[in-house]
Amino acid sequence: MSASTFVESPTARVALHVRVLLGAVTVLGPGKVELLTHIRETGSISEAARKMEMSYQRAWRHVKLMNELFPESLVISTRGGAVRGGASLTELGGKVLTAYAELRGELDSTIKKHQKKLLKLLEA
Fold first, then answer.
1. Are 62 and 32 in contact (CB under 8 A)?
2. Which backbone phi and psi does 29 adopt, to 5 degrees?
3. Does domain 26-97 fall into CATH 1.10.10.10?
């Protein structure tokens, strides 16, 4: 059975998922980076969670974990109530997003440069 049995028109590519681990715990990865990005854009953990189709509780757990594992909090939040609460990235949170994006850019560039050799082997 060939691969085309499952996918009519497969496009071969090399994909890399970057995660920062502390022991077995994922401190930072694509999902947490997306969450931080949405928090920065929306000013809200709940809105960021909605954009990701994630429960608020799960989003809050991710934020709490990142805040506890980095030397300083990445996200600060204020409670809602009569006056809407909010959330924003700290200076460190912004630096973390920038550093992750730079790393991804370098890795994507390296993959693009070298993937042709590997992918040609699929044609053999």
1. yes
2. -160, -175
3. yes
Show the low-confidence residues of the chain (pLDDT under 50): 1-7, 9
Prediction pTM value: 0.83
Pick the closest to residue 63 from 37, 36, 94 (CA basis).
Answer: 36
DSSP string covering 13-77: -------EEETTEEEE-HHHHHHHHHHHHHS-HHHHHHHTT--HHHHHHHHHHHHHHSSS-SEEE
Among candidate residues 67, 21, 70, the one with its CA nearest the CA of residue 45: 67
CB 37 within 8 A of CB 97: yes
Whole-angstrom distance, CA of residue 108 vs CA of residue 105:
5
Report d(CA 63, CA 68) in Å as an integer. Answer: 9
Provide the pLDDT for residue 8: 53
Q: What is the pLDDT of residue 124?
A: 66
Q: What is the pLDDT of residue 1?
A: 41
Domain locations in the chain as residue ranges: 26-97
